[in-house]
Amino acid sequence: MAEARVETRPGSGRAAWTALLAAVAVAVLAVGAARVASPAARQTTAPPPPSLVVIGIDAFRPDYLERANVPAIRALAARGVRAEGLIPPFPSKTFPSFVTIATGLRPARHGIVNNTIDDPAIPVRFRLSDHPGRSDPRWWLGEPIWNAAERQGVRAAGIFWPGDDVEILGRRPSSYLTYDESFPNEQRIDRALALLAQPPASRPRLLMLYVSLVDDASHAHGPHAPEAHAAAAAADALVARLMAGLESRGLNRETNVVVVSDHGMAETMPERVIVLDNYLDPASVDVIETGPSVRLRPLGDVTLTPEARRQWTDQTLRALRGKHPRLRVYPGTALPARFQAGTSVRIPPVVGMADDGWLVLTRAQHQRWRERGGETRGEHGFAPGLPSMYGVFVAAGPSFRPGMRLPAFESIHLYEAFCRVLGITPGPNDGDPRVLAEVIR
Questions:
Q1: What is the DSSP letter of 393?
Q2: pLDDT for 103 beyond 50
Q3: How far apart are CA 103 and CA 89, in angstroms?
Q4: Is 255:53 a contact under the CB 8 Å cutoff?
Q5: By the 8 A CB rule, do 245 and 189 touch?
Q6: Are strands 81-83 and 404-406 parallel, antiparallel or unpaired?
Q7: DSSP character for 47?
Q8: What is the mean pLDDT of residues 191-198?
């Protein structure tokens, strides 16, 4: 404490004495205030802000909460927020959907318009099986939430969330792994817990984790098969492992946990197939995709003039339109408004959509299916508004109000809610912050 000094002049004794008393009084009050204020300041130090863990379970349908043995996810829903369904973007495929959740952008804006994509400016086709090809930063046009968080000083981590291992707009999360399908799911949870248990200075406040076991089982056997229910139960066991690990580490009260899926799954069978060969020769076109949707380009598309491409599109539409009652065919530039597909050179000139549970296949594909025994399977990629395509949304933790039940809503709105939980400013996006405003404390 600095010494109080009082300056005096001859003949001013009374004034000097008064000034000295005043200075002493100020010093005494200052000491007392310091003794009172210091403990109070220590007591009101803000606790660490809550973390956000998002678990993406591929193809987990919302009705599995009732039909499958999933007590951990049901318990999470009971003490937090649950929606009747999470409506995917168009198309209802894994990469477009999970990237929409991460960016708040529709696929035409974030660039990942399908699981298989062509772009005239990129020589290699985007394929899920080609990790180096799909990791080309030119495919990825939107800033994911992990990069928005890092840019604003919030550490983020990814464990196989689609795109988290790609350098997008010059950034990656602080922690990520190159995708490895064989990496055991239990070890993914253990890695998440190890990251969350780090000291606050190095701990991620955002962690996004992906598992595919439900998608694998329901593709192979159909969404209603015992194998699909068993896979849902196994995914639930991963959530239980995470929750137990958070509690044992004393992190459960400061961690928000969200369970989402990218889409649902519809049951398919060989009796519900539209054979493409009946209407055109598959060898005469570039068949980018078959299944719930068929996506077609002309051979040598990049060499065609706009007029030649338009003529090919008109000819192909005439060959397919109105030929099968379960098939709707559109120009890629004029998809139905309800799909909110936007426009992109990455959307092929011709897109056909089958009715729920029907598939468009080549004759060779259909024959191979029958030769394998014609077993019931599961597929996604149908119109996103169909309940069979709904994903799941469950959330609980310090940032979410308990006991909330929501109608189905579009996954495009999750990004804004996640940014609010993290306390970061969202980037440009297509979501509406009002949709989930009432569920966040």
A1: E
A2: yes
A3: 12
A4: yes
A5: yes
A6: parallel
A7: P
A8: 98
Angular region, 292: left φ>0, alpha ψ -120 to 50, beta rest = alpha
Of 8, 18, 94, 268, the active-site residue reads 94
What is the mean predicted confidence (pLDDT) over 25-54? 56
Q: What is the pLDDT of residues 152-189, one digit of tens each?
A: 999 999 999 999 999 999 999 999 999 999 999 999 99
CA–CA gap between residue 422 and residue 305 (Å, rounded)? 48
392 vs 411: CA distance, rounded Å: 10
CA–CA separation, 62 and 60 (whole Å): 7
How far apart CA 123 and CA 119 sit, in angstroms, is 8
Q: What is the pTM of this model?
A: 0.89
Could you say which DSSP state residue 138 is in?
Answer: G
Q: What is the mean pLDDT of residues 50-58?
A: 97
Question: What is the average pLDDT across 230-245?
Answer: 98
Look-up of token digits 């000819």: 315
pLDDT of residue 44: 52
Runs of H (alpha helix) within 249-355 = 306-320
Annotated active-site residue 316? The verdict is no
What pLDDT does residue 66 have? 97
How far apart, in whole angstroms, are the C-alpha atoms of residue 430 and residue 100?
A: 9
User: Distance between CA 406 and CA 419 in Å, rounded?
Assistant: 19
SS3 211: strand
d(CA 29, CA 322): 90
Instruction: Determine contact, residues 319/342, Cβ cutoff 8 Å.
Output: no
Listing DSSP states for 1-37 in one string gives -PPP-----TT-HHHHHHHHHHHHHHHHHHHHHHHHH
Residue with tokens 């729920």: 356
Alpha helix ranges (H) inside 398-441: 414-422
- Beta pairing partners, 168: 171
Evaluate if residue 37 carries a pLDDT over 80.
Answer: no
- Residue 296's closest CA among 162, 116, 175, 55? 116
- Cα dihedral sign, 28-30-35-36: positive
Q: Region of 169 please: left (phi>0), alpha (psi -120 to 50) or beta.
A: left
